[in-house]
């Protein structure tokens, strides 16, 4: 992964032919971690990291930049294991959350744990996503679309752990309505 930038940006874009992304990704150097996600509820809007955007630019892949988001406005709450295995993947994780139009995510477990204890019914499952670390663990993430939702969920999940509740209270955005519009 490339060195940290002082102000990381995440980018919303469209591309005429999605096949061009697959072709471009196949040509991107192994030292670059290229990732992009389709934004849920759209037909052709994607979100990506600065590293991926730069790699696409170097390969002259034509796309239409719609908007950019300040990565520091998206909050991530790690477990010790997710921090260890995914510390280098903060921006790809934030892209994953933005693709769901969330404002924050909290790691709530690892795939394979016997009982995560969460509502995974049709509607409940839409509040979760996953990200697989290169080390092989697949981490389960709870998506939050408002600060109040994060505070409520984490209060119950952690029995009011002060450190976790301070994280929730410090989420930069109040709700997903404050995310950049790309229309």
Please outline what is shown here.
The protein has 183 residues and is α+β, with helices and mostly antiparallel strands. It contains seven helices and eight strands; from the N terminus they run E-H-E-E-H-E-E-H-H-E-H-E-E-H-H.
In words, what does this structure look like?
The protein is an alpha+beta fold. The longest helix has 12 residues, at 147-158. The protein is built from seven helices and eight strands. The protein starts with 8 loop residues before the first strand and ends in a 14-residue tail after the last helix. Strand 7 and strand 8 form a beta hairpin. The strands form two sheets. The chain has a four-stranded antiparallel beta sheet. Helix 6 (147-158) packs antiparallel against helix 7 (162-169). The protein is globular, with a radius of gyration of 17 Å. The protein has two domains: 9-70; 72-178, no CATH class.
What pattern of helices and strands is seen along the backbone?
A: EHEEHEEHHEHEEHH
Strand order of the largest sheet: 2-3-1-4
The helix fraction, in percent, is 25-40%
Quaternary state reads: single chain
Whole-number count of domains:
2
Low-confidence stretches: 1-6
The average pLDDT is: 88
- Radius of gyration (Å): 17 Å
End-to-end Cα distance: 31 Å
- By helix and strand content, what is the structural category? alpha+beta
Break the fold down into its secondary structure elements and pairings.
Elements lengths: L8 E6 L3 H10 L8 E3 L6 E5 H9 L5 E7 L4 E3 L2 H7 L3 H10 L4 E7 L11 H4 L2 E5 L5 E7 L2 H12 L3 H8 L14
Parallel strand pairs: 5-6
Antiparallel strand pairs: 1-3, 1-4, 2-3, 6-8, 7-8
Helix pairs in contact: 6-7
């Amino acid at each position: 992964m490339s060195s940290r930038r002082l102000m990381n940006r995440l980018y919303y874009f469209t591309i005429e032919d999605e096949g061009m992304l697959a072709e471009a990704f196949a040509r991107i150097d192994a030292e670059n971690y290229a990732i992009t996600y389709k934004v849920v509820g759209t037909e052709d809007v994607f979100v990506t990291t600065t590293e991926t955007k730069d790699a696409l630019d170097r390969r002259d892949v034509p796309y239409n930049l719609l908007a950019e988001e300040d990565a520091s406005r998206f909050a991530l709450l790690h477990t010790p294991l997710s921090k260890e295995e995914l510390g280098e993947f903060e921006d790809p994780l934030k892209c994953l959350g933005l693709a769901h139009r969330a404002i924050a995510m909290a790691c709530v477990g690892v795939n394979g744990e016997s009982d995560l204890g969460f509502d995974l019914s049709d509607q409940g499952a839409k509040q979760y996503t996953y990200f697989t670390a290169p080390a092989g663990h697949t981490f389960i993430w709870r998506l939050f679309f408002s600060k109040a939702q994060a505070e409520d969920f984490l209060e119950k999940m952690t029995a009011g752990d002060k450190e976790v509740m301070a994280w929730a209270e410090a989420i930069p955005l109040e709700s997903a309505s404050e995310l950049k519009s790309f229309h």
